[in-house]
Amino acid sequence: MSDDRAEVGARATNGTRTTSSWADRRGPLRVLASGPRGVYALTVIGLVVALCLLSFVWLPADPNHASAYNAWLAPSAEHWLGTDGSGRDIAARLIAGSRVTVLVVLGAAVVSGAIGLLFAVPAALGPRWLRESLAILIDVLIAFPTLLLAIMLAAVFGGGLAIVVAAVGIGYGVSIGRVVRAELRQIAAEDYVLASRAAGLGRGAILRTHLLPNVAPVFTVQLSLSMGLAILAEAGLSYLGFGAPPGMPSWGRMLAETQGYISVHPEVVLWPGLAITLTVLAFYLLGDALREAMDPSLRTRRAGGAGGGPEPITAVPGPATPDDTGAAR
Questions:
Q1: Which domains occur in the chain, in start order?
Q2: Which of 140, 250, 319, 325 is deepest in the core (most CB within 10 A)?
Q3: Which residue stretches belong to region Disordered (predicted)?
């Protein structure tokens, strides 16, 4: 009987949807690097990570050293990007601020990914009462904006990067869970999954062999998008005073501290604003490039020039079901 189950499972695997091209012979990184979006994303993200690592061993100046004598200095060999109104080196603060960006991105990715899967799997495959309860809970949590949730947490526990990571992880993790849940339900209705279930494979085996591998492209793309949103959220929260503590340089805090001088010294706002914009754009384009790398059919359509511009990078949920819409309740 076990041999029969293995044979049916293998046949079902052969019928698995080919939404993932991780098996592409060129490899995922080479596929990513083959297009302009992937090249830009990998270059910018790699540069930010390199600056973060470099900041732990070398900085052009002390990012927190203030000197009224050095206020508003123009770019020079000593101060590459000039200084701000307190005489602090802008280049040093920009490089040191990459630590906060990388920390928030990694922390938010781990938290949002874990929360997304914890919501999605039982909400898609659990009993009916659990699916309906989680669907309602997801809708309630999505109704709270991430910034509002962060402010509420900061009011209770105090500000800091941990609050930023928690708020961003919860806010965007629920959104990831909603998208992955819809994708899981659609995949669970495929013939090869039903055949595996009829062969006697348990839910755990089906989840490991069929569902999670096929939902990986959607999950990965949504996770990369949440990283870009995490940078924006951190910058916004630091701007409002709920993010990085005062002694820790942050791109959002740099914007907040120099906003009063934008009319007379616009360059001090330009650099952190440009860093945020380019990095967020890199993660957005990474999501688009990842989806193309994981979807051979999309890559073929774009190579053939069909359809004009690129498709939106957000995942499209599967067909609505009574559990999704609540129409049949």
A1: 22-61+91-314 (1.10.3720.10)
A2: 250
A3: 1-21, 301-329
